[in-house]
Amino acid sequence: MELSKQNIISMIGIIKANYPSSYKDTTREEFKIIVDLWYDMFKSYDYELVSSAFKKSLLKCKMPPTIADIQEQIDKLLEIGNSCDNEMWEDINSAIKKVVRIDIFNGTEYFTPEGTINPREKIQEIFNSLTDISKIFLGNYQTLWNYINYDEVSLSIEKTKFMKELPKIKEKVKVLKEMKQLVQNDILKIGNNSQK
Fold it and tell me: Is 150 within 8 Å of 162 (Cβ atoms)?
C-alpha cells in the first residue's frame, strides 16, 4: 500500500501520545511543514515498510523518533529483506544442483538398488518441492532442467532477473493465497448452507 500524508499524520499523533511534550507548541503551519517533510522523506517506500520501521523506532528510541531513526530501521529491514531474497534464489540454485546429479544419464531411465529412476519424474518432484515463489519464476520443471546447461554468467543473469521480478512474484503469491482462502471460505459457507 502506498504511503499517504494521513499515515504520516497518524505516526506523528502516536509520537504526541507517547511523548506528550513533543510537538506541544507546534502551530498548524509548522505541523504542515513537519508532515510534508516526513512525507517527502518516506514517500518512495510503501506504507507497510515505513510503519514497521516507525514501530521499531518507537521501541528502540528513548526520545521521540526522528526521520534519521526511522530511516535507520528502514535500512535494516531492507537489508533483512535482501538476505531473504538471496535465500529464495538459493532455493532454485540448490534445485539446479540436484537436477545436475539426476541428469548424468542424459535424461534416460537408469537403475539403482532402489529401482528404476525416470529423470523427468524425479525433476518434476524436485520442482514440486520448491517454494511457490520459485515455481512461479520458473514456470515448469523443464526450465529447471534447462538451467543445467547454463554457465555461471548466464545463471547470474537469471538471478538478476529473479531479483527484479521478485516483488511482483511475491504479490502474485499473496493474491493467490488470499484467493485460495476466499474459495475455502465459500466452500465452507456452501457446506454449512446445504446442511441446514
Answer: no
